[in-house]
Design brief:
- The chain is mainly beta.
- The protein is about 0% helix and about 50% strand.
- The strands form 2 sheets. Strands 2, 4, 5, 6, 9, 10 and 11 form a 7-stranded mixed sheet that branches.
- The chain is globular, with a radius of gyration of 14 Å.
């Protein structure tokens, strides 16, 4: 059974940086494409970033492109989300997710339904 555990969230000021980590267990991480989603209060869960199994391909939401970087260390079974220049609108619970579905269109890879395994979430709060 795949289990994902996020860490690294917290309260920061606008312009600060944070790095989220997602440690996977019960699986070999390089069998899965990995993704970060986020959900703000009262909002739907939205795609943030995805990384391919090898780490060779990455995809980002327009709202975080340039500021956020997704990476992975398969030897450590860990995925990261480096978040720079944080804004108050980045405030949300951030979820790590894994998918064994590949060869997806760009629209498909941004759908939460594609991801079969989820972490419990990490709160990120950015004050102005």
């Amino acid at each position: 059974q795949v289990q994902l555990v996020e860490s690294g969230g917290g309260l920061v000021q606008a312009g600060d940086s944070l790095r989220l980590s997602c440690v996977a267990s019960g699986c070999t991480l390089n069998d899965y494409a990995m993704c970060w989603f986020r959900q703000a209060p009262g909002m739907v869960r939205e795609f943030v970033a995805r990384i391919s199994r090898s780490g060779g391909s990455t995809y980002y939401a327009d709202s975080v492109k340039v500021r956020f970087t997704i990476s992975r260390d398969n030897a450590k079974n860990t995925v990261y989300l480096q978040m720079n220049s944080l804004k108050p609108e980045d405030t949300a619970v951030y979820y790590c997710a894994a998918s064994s579905r590949f060869r997806l269109t760009d629209n498909q890879r941004r759908l939460a339904s594609v991801y079969g395994y989820w972490g419990q979430g990490a709160q990120v709060t950015v004050s102005s």
